[in-house]
Specification:
Residues 149-306 form the N-acetyltransferase domain. Its EC number is 2.3.1.-. It is an enzyme of class 2 (transferase). Pfam families: Acetyltransf_1. The protein contains seven helices and twelve strands. Strands 1-2-3-4-5-12-6-11-10-9-8-7 form a twelve-stranded mixed β-sheet, with helices on both faces. It is elongated. The chain has helices at 11-27, 32-43, 93-107, 159-176, 182-196, 248-262, 277-285, and strands at 2-6, 50-56, 59-71, 74-84, 112-117, 129-138, 149-153, 206-213, 216-228, 231-239, 267-273, 289-298. The longest helix is centred in the middle third of the chain and has 18 residues, at 159-176. With 320 residues, it is an alpha+beta fold. Strand 8 and strand 9 form a beta hairpin. It starts with a strand and ends in a 22-residue tail after the last strand. The model is unreliable at 305-320 (pLDDT under 50).
């Protein structure tokens, strides 16, 4: 029988969790410094997590970690970790832990449950919708540019129109992925852009590109260099709808990779929102590995007599 015991001392679990998480980040491609930077970001939030041992007949078989917090005005739960040791895998402990996490968060008012997968989880979270993926690739040599496609710096006159278009597209991505309502997405878009590029085109360590073919604008790009040590983050590589299906998406990525190397970074990273199959297929074909995958599920209201104090409930090895 699967049971759960809340931990008072999380030291042993945290050491194991950080070791696993660091290894998964390194396996995705970025160097040790970038992996450590990402781990520090997670480590800063661990103190708020509730962690439990997953046990079977008194034997520890794994760990689960959960938390409920405000997310843009909505209470959301998160499975921070769910690991079942290999020796005990496949015996139903994973499903029991997932179900426990869903109940635990729902009983504390969460309307949604998020999980960030850093390893394949099999069918365990198939019922969760994909919100987005973080993808990355090491760039060992300059990419071959597509004939006839050029990339130039964006001008000040082009910037306002580009910004309005990017903000609208960002809102659309968030809503399509099911992350926020349209009004919440607009507020998030305004906050994020104000924080990320407060000085517009003059914001340091950012590259803004205009892609052209046959003297006609076909798309744009926006990249942040040094996002992580040695890593450039691609906030946007966009091809106008009328120019899609001509191989320009790969040309845009090549321009981003060239800008990455020119800035002194050696890896390029993107977020692909759930529902954007075209971008997902493009990144896969170009060799970009999934570093993290964020999923979520809507939670039902808790039953009236749910037991808030049960010690038979937490989550395995796939997340953060």
């Amino acid at each position: 029988m699967t049971e759960f015991k809340l931990l008072g001392d999380k030291t042993e679990w945290q050491k194991d969790f950080e070791r696993r998480l660091h290894a998964s980040y390194r396996a995705a491609g970025p160097g040790a410094a970038a992996a450590e930077h990402m781990l520090e970001d997670v480590r800063a939030r661990i103190s708020d997590w509730t962690v439990a041992e997953i046990t079977d007949a008194g034997t520890r078989v794994g760990y689960v970690a959960v938390v409920v917090a405000d997310d843009n005005g909505t209470l959301a739960g998160r499975i921070g970790d769910l690991r079942v040791d290999a020796l005990h895998a496949g015996r139903g402990h994973e499903q029991a832990a997932r179900d426990w996490a869903e109940r635990w968060c729902a009983e504390r008012g969460a309307h949604r449950l998020d999980i960030r997968l850093t390893e394949p989880a099999g069918e365990l979270f198939d019922g969760y919708r994909v919100r987005g993926q973080l993808r990355t690739r090491l760039i060992s040599s300059p990419p071959e540019p597509l004939d006839g496609v050029t990339a130039r710096p964006m001008t000040q006159a082009e910037y306002p129109g580009w910004l309005a278009s990017e903000k609208a597209a960002y809102v659309g991505d968030i809503v399509r992925a099911g992350a926020l309502s349209p009004k919440e997405a607009v507020r998030k878009s305004d906050r994020d852009f104000a924080k990320l590029i407060p000085e517009g085109l003059a914001t340091p360590d950012n590259t803004f590109l205009v892609l052209e073919a046959a003297d006609e604008q076909i798309g744009t790009g926006w990249l942040k260099h040094g996002y992580l040590p040695g890593v450039t983050y691609g906030y946007s590589l966009y091809i106008q709808e009328q120019h899609r299906g001509k191989g320009y998406g790969r040309a845009a990525m090549a321009a981003g990779e060239q800008a990455t190397l020119a800035a002194g970074d050696s890896a390029l990273m993107f977020t692909v929102w759930g529902g954007n199959e075209a971008a997902t297929n493009l990144y896969t074909s170009a060799g970009y590995q999934v570093m993290e995958e964020n999923r979520f599920i809507d939670l039902p209201a808790p039953r009236p007599h749910a037991n808030h104090h049960s010690t038979t409930q937490p989550p395995t090895h796939y997340l953060t």
